[in-house]
Design a protein that fits this description.
This protein has 155 residues and is of the alpha+beta class. It contains five helices and eight strands. The C terminus is likely disordered.
């Protein structure tokens, strides 16, 4: 997990997933409430009452289960799909979820986030310093979310 970026001109939010042992970063558009939930987890902010992702963590913990991993596993019609893998009583359950919710939960559960290799190969970017990050943000501003899979940094 690298960061949540807000495009203040268009009021869009993008989560940046950085490879642990690599150079690529995958940008994924997310909604404002999910961006807030991810940002809160990144900075360790807590609230008087549990947010949805905190509540889900409490439920998983209460049933003595664990989230073994999160995986961004597919890109269909310019929409990313993820799965939450929950282990309970020696069984693993794969639950379909939005990547943004999966990431928010993974940060709270301190669980590893995987991205399918094909998705990272086709959509990940190598960001080399501030110049490329600025190019990325500028390019994202000019691209409609439904066109996401159809652009590259060099355009």
């Amino acid at each position: 997990m690298k960061a949540v970026v807000e495009d203040q001109q268009l009021h869009n939010y993008i989560v940046l997933l950085k490879e642990k042992h690599g150079e690529r970063t995958l940008p994924i558009w997310i909604g404002p409430s999910e961006a807030m939930a991810i940002e809160a987890a990144l900075v360790g902010e807590s609230f008087e009452r549990p947010l949805t992702h905190d509540l889900l963590k409490i439920v998983i913990d209460t049933f003595q289960a664990k989230v073994s991993k999160i995986e961004v596993e597919a890109l269909k019609n310019e929409i990313y799909y993820a799965k939450i893998y929950i282990e309970s009583d020696s069984k693993v359950f794969a639950i379909d979820a939005r990547p943004s919710d999966s990431i928010a939960l993974a940060l709270r559960m301190k669980t590893v986030i995987f991205v399918d290799q094909k998705i990272m190969s086709e959509n990940g970017w190598v960001l080399d310093g501030d110049k490329n990050v600025s190019q990325l943000i500028d390019r994202l501003r000019k691209t409609k979310p439904e066109q996401f899979g159809n652009f590259n940094l060099e355009e």
